[in-house]
Write a structure and sequence with these properties.
It contains six helices and eight strands, in the order E-H-E-H-E-H-E-E-E-H-E-E-H-H. The protein has 178 residues and is α+β, with helices and mostly antiparallel strands. The chain has a single domain, classed as Peptide methionine sulphoxide reductase MsrA (Peptide Methionine Sulfoxide Reductase, Chain A), CATH 3.30.1060.10. Helix 1 crosses helix 6 and helix 3 crosses helix 4.
Length: 178
């Protein structure tokens, strides 16, 4: 792996939404949808995750070049393109699998995440509910969940749920886009 590449793992509701956002960010090399943070044994499936019984969150793993985009920048984008103030919910998607979460990979990421959460809080009238935890085992989601927006832009979910997040991304972070 290129020594300038690092990994960030974030969950902001449905992974189709967060994946679509971060695929457009300069310095992001790769985005993989998956699951993390659960307590069920073995590799979970999408169907099991959707039941809400495994405890896993839908997350993305971002491989990014720190010479182009910082972990802090990724977190600011993350915190402003989903609603971090709703516990276990993003829009109509409800359940622990849709929780807002930052999984840090090292102490430096933990420190940066704590600071970003503190700095972002005043911009929200409600308390930020984003979980901050050490990275557990990450399980890559099934093939049909990778590049979902790119391959399904005509789907209703993409038009009504993902596109408004991308519009927000373009409005708030135009300077960070590919």
């Amino acid at each position: 792996m290129n020594k300038n590449l690092q990994i960030a793992t974030l969950g902001g509701g449905c992974f189709w939404c967060t994946e679509a956002v971060f695929q457009k960010v300069k310095g992001v090399d790769k985005v993989v949808s998956g699951y993390a943070g659960g307590n069920a044994p073995g590799k979970p499936t999408y169907r099991e995750i959707c039941s809400g019984l495994t405890g896993h969150a839908e997350v993305i793993q971002i491989t990014f070049d720190v010479n182009i985009v910082s972990f802090e920048d990724l977190l600011v984008i993350f915190m402003t393109t989903h609603d971090p103030t709703t516990l276990n919910q993003q829009g109509a998607d409800r359940g622990t699998q849709y929780r807002s979460v930052i999984y840090y990979h090292n102490k430096q990421q933990q420190k940066i995440a704590k600071e970003v959460l503190k700095q972002i809080q005043p911009y929200y009238s409600n308390k930020i509910e984003t979980e901050l935890s050490e990275i557990p085992i990450f399980y890559e989601a099934e093939h049909e969940h990778q590049n979902y927006y790119k391959e399904n832009t005509q789907q209703g979910y993409c038009s009504f749920v993902i596109e408004p997040k991308l519009s927000k991304l373009r409005k708030l972070h135009a300077d960070k886009l590919k």
